[in-house]
Amino acid sequence: MVTAKTTSLGRAPAQLAGGWEVGLLLFLVLLYVGGMSVNPTFFASTEALHALLRDTSRVGIIAVGMTFVIVNKDLDLSVGSVYGLVAVVFARLFAPSFLDLGIAASVLLCLLLGAAIGLLNGVLVTILKAPAFIATLTILFIGRGFVLALTHGQAIYYSDKANEFPLFFHLGETNVLGFNNQILIFAVVAATGAYVLAKTRWGYETFATGGNEQAAVYAGIPTRWVRIRAYLISALCATLAALLSAAQDKGVTPLYGVSWELTVIASVIIGGASILGGRGRVIGSCLGAAVVVLIDKVLREGWPITRIVVIDGENVAVNARFTLPAGAVLVFLGLLLVAAVLVEPYLIRRQVAGRFWAWLRGRPPPPAYEMGGVALEGVQTKGAMAGDLGLETAGFGRFFARRDALAIVLTVLLWLTGLALRPDYWWNLSNTFAILLNYTELALIAVGLTYVIAAGDIDLSVGAVLALAGSTAAYFLKVLGADPLTAVAMGLLAGMVAGLVNATVTVGFKLPAFIATLGMFYIARGLAAWFVAGQQLTGWPESYNLLGRKANDVLLHFGFSLPPGFVRTVAEVVSVQTIWMFFVALAAGIVLAYTPFGLKVLSTGGNLRAAAYAGINTNRVRFLALLLSALCASMAGIINVAYFRSFNPVAGQFRELDAIAAVIIGGGSIFGGYGTMIGSLAGAAAITLVRALLQLNVQGFTMPQHWINVFIGVILIVAVLVDIWVRQANIFGRVRSWRARRGQAVEAKHAG
Amino acid sequence: MPGETQGTPIVEMRGIEKAFGAVQALRSVDLVLYPGEILGLVGDNSAGKSTLMKILTGAYQRDAGEIFVAGQPVHFKSPHESRDVGIEMIYQDFALCGNMDVGQNIFLGRWPLTGPFVNRRKMYAEADRVLKRLKVDVNSVYQKVESLSGGRQQSVAIARAISFEPRVVILDEPTANLSVMATNRLLETMLELKRQGVAQIIISHRLVDIFAVGDRVMVLKRGESAGDRYIRHTDEHEVLEIIVSGTRERALTAEEAMR
């Protein structure tokens, strides 16, 4: 008998931390030294180091949970709003001015809330099969809506009552050893997380699920539970962080956790996790969190400068501090996210550091990993399950089998509802005009987005690009005194650059569109806020504003006066932008439905590989679709500024939500391959009418704006689920045929 | 009939070599295919069947060797170039867009035009004509492909391939995902194509199918040719034996084996 000789396998690869983590640590030290050199008064104190660690703690705790989600090849965009919502709910439960509950009950209810949100995320993503980014993005917006609604935009403080419960509130304070208790809790959470992910069955299951879910299923791993579990961990980590912040601040403002999802995801990705799943380490994520928090601090703290001030004709040097405007930090963090997602596939997976080190020593490079071309492709799943609906039915059935039927029916129903609620007002010319205006902006964005969604990608940045284009145009008009034409050109240019970045990262670097456009979502909005910082962007030549005026006003401006009558009535309701939108939509609709380019878009979204085999340049198609989406959003932004005669930093906020919902209601599929212009326009109409209805004053009651956003979020998630389950999986048809089969079986039994 | 009528081969591959890093995937492989012939390509997993076909279509580049199509030396850099000389491949998963209808799929990427617009009438009429030529029944050219059964989807894929008027069709595991009924329909379709003079190479694990329609079977073993046989002069047992224990040294060509 041959005995197997044990040969040395060499040292097993490190599980908890590796070269990347060491590099991050070095980078962190460098960054800190850099911070010290630009701002010695702040960073050179132990106080600063302590504050850095304290603030890293909360981000880091959420990053620990997020690592599990990202290694699963999922994404949790809702952490920031879970953090904010839990802090607010804690305040509402605990504060004497509200429910005035005890500390134990408050904490318990908060934990239950966090677990419930995590479970909801998990169920939406796994059992209901909604794409992770769209499900959690909706939860993000809904959570934000709740935060604003529950606080009414006000801060809540409860420091007096907090003194009665030192045991809990001490968690957020400095302990007898001289450092903050949060740091201790962070250390415990990070160690537990690192151990669980790297060494236990749970962790191995997570890596298997993220690496190849199908293979994991075949191997008997309950991947649904693994993914739900990660969402639970993530939400509970956010809850813990929120409770720590409650303990520290003894109060809450509605701004808690705003854009924290960006900070946390950037941390995890910088920490070496792959947005494409299957790779990631908790220690790396924690170091990533420290890097991001430190960068954030360096940017926010600014650096001391000497400003020369002229007083009474004399130059006097004054010590001042240069700080970046608020939007700038967001821009840098967004750029960091986009750069960081490139790190894993292009630096870590290609072993750039290892090969460089070998090259320096003149050694042969380490063996390259087998690089599967598929591994870098974004997620593209399709539901190829629909039945022969379209051909078997006739009449009404045939209409309802159309993918855009829902939107058309909804539009009619909603309009009739408005008429029923306010027969006196709904008909009104001014109301119709207002609805049409809101509709125009949304429809214009939806036109571009239809192409992107049909091509199988997504653009989360449309609202932010709208703001960027608008603010650029306004900046050129007001600050630089440019003429209207230049301003329009510059606004379009800014929007197109944003679109170019989206398209390059998505197509050129082969990363999922949602992560590229998520980065742009923050970058563009940050830039818009940067432009507007400290200035009132309003008051410029009226000729620019004609872009947003009614047709009649434009004619009057040029000295035409229409005779009273039908034409004039129409001209008083229809504005320039509506006419413009109509022509853009018409052209885009014809191209999508009747030209080869439109069919190429649909086939790219339907089956990328088949389209490529057929000789279609799918990269070009996706690139152009993303550019078109940015172009439409830019036009909407330029018109928005012209209509309001000023730039408002909240322009286009939540528009990405509306636009995605419009396209999906209108028959688009979140998995790509479907979408019609008529459907998207009808979907935009439905969303506009929902907003108009919710704002309607019915017998003295109007719904607050925050609740409207919650409502739109719910509509989006319902639309996505309807698309997946009714249109694609044809669940009603399956239930019907199952019933019919059972009926037959029963009959057969009776007959036999 | 093959064996008797030689003439010019439509495809001839000589001494094909291909290595992936340290792995020698193909070692001096020869392949000959005559017009109207159905050649079965069999062998174990990782025997190099798919690699050889991908080299023929230009999806992979060969390291050494020569390829002649109808006597002309060729060097394809991509599948689109091989398509231009009449070589079509039907992929195992059909490579169709489920969200589009049968007509649009048959003309995927080369939709007929009038001006800048797709000529829908011509597209559907042509698609119908191609399907009729294949004698397959697909309810309607307006039907979405994702609502078709696996066998019908494959019919669409074949219709798509022959709409290019190819001289050679390569089928990669065509019966792997099909029911018995659908398999029989496919085999009829292949014979119909053969009657129209189209040469076919079928990669399959199922010897039954190859013996049902094939003229000749070629065995690959670990990247080397282990010989070929005329279907009429062999049986499944012999082919299986070659697959399991054949070597290049003992390989016989179909003609040698007949003697």
TrEMBL record, chain A:
Key words, A-Z: Cell membrane, Membrane, Transmembrane, Transmembrane helix
UniProt GO molecular function: transmembrane transporter activity
Topology in the lipid bilayer: Multi-pass membrane protein
Transmembrane segments: 12-32, 52-70, 77-95, 101-120, 132-157, 177-198, 230-248, 322-343, 405-421, 433-453, 460-478, 484-501, 513-533, 579-602, 623-644, 664-694, 706-726
Chief location: membrane
Compartment list: Cell membrane
InterPro entries, A to Z: ABC_transp_permease
Domain of life assignment: Bacteria
GO cellular component: plasma membrane
Keyword Metal-binding: no
PANTHER family for the chain: ABC TRANSPORTER PERMEASE PROTEIN YPHD-RELATED-RELATED, RIBOSE IMPORT PERMEASE PROTEIN RBSC
Name of protein: Ribose transport system permease protein
Native organism: Mycoplana dimorpha
Phylogenetic placement of the source organism: Bacteria, Pseudomonadati, Pseudomonadota, Alphaproteobacteria, Hyphomicrobiales
TrEMBL record, chain B:
Domain ABC transporter residue range list: 11-247
PROSITE patterns: ABC_TRANSPORTER_2 (PS50893)
GO molecular function terms listed in the Swiss-Prot or TrEMBL record: ATP binding; ATP hydrolysis activity
UniProt xrefs under CDD domains: ABC_Carb_Monos_I (cd03216)
Taxonomic superkingdom: Bacteria
Keywords per UniProt: ATP-binding, Nucleotide-binding
Stored InterPro entries: AAA+_ATPase (IPR003593), ABC_carbohydrate_import_ATPase (IPR050107), ABC_transporter-like_ATP-bd (IPR003439), P-loop_NTPase (IPR027417)
The UniProt record lists the keyword Transmembrane helix: no
Name listed for the protein in its UniProt record: Monosaccharide ABC transporter ATP-binding protein (CUT2 family)
Species per Swiss-Prot/TrEMBL record: Mycoplana dimorpha
